[in-house]
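Re: beginner question about structure tokens

> Can someone show what the tokenized structure looks like for a real chain? I only ever see the sequence side.

Sure, here's an example I had lying around. Input first:
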Amino acid sequence: MNRELTAAIDTLYDTFAAVPRPTGIDACPGCFGADDARDLLRPVPLRSLPATALAHYAMHVGLTAGAADDFRHFLPRMLEVSVTDGFGGPEVGFVYPEVDAFVGRLRFTGWTTWDPAEQTAVREFLAAFWHDVLTTDPDWTFSADEVLCGIGNAEDDLTPYLATWAALLPATHPAAHLRQPLARQHVNAFWHGRAAQLAQVAAWLAGPPTVGNAP
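And the corresponding structure tokens:
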């Protein structure tokens, strides 16, 4: 994780620090039960909340558990977890939600209606995460396909993200990331319902990317 991504995560914590810890979670009991809520709401600093305590909430939030305010409270830690170690662990027994699924949950919580400072912090995080992925060997990080799919579920316009990719070419790592979406031909199921964003990616891949210097 580069310094820009670390700084963006710190900014998330600072920006959302005023959002109070929830006292309860509205959820479907069969999806997110009392034990899950107790683990999630334990009185520890947010940065210290174990990934395993967040796993079931992250899996169901925006669908069958949670509301915008509790999502905003836990968002900095969940984003940090999703781009580092993930939500899985021996206590959980699964790794879902993966990064494309979780980042896409932003759309279901109406994040583009939040306070402008919160929206800016989220966008700075997405931009820093995307840059970090593109400039890392794809054998050692997330694929550009899954990350761009997640961002494409959160953002309506992928132009800035595709421009970043174009600007970083033809450096070795950004170029290597091109192979993944081309090979998969956008079969990632999380593109479902995001035809316009997928079309942006397909058009960019089909045309000659602009090569330049990264901002």
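Each token stands for a local structural state, so reading them left to right follows the chain. Residues 3-206 form one domain.
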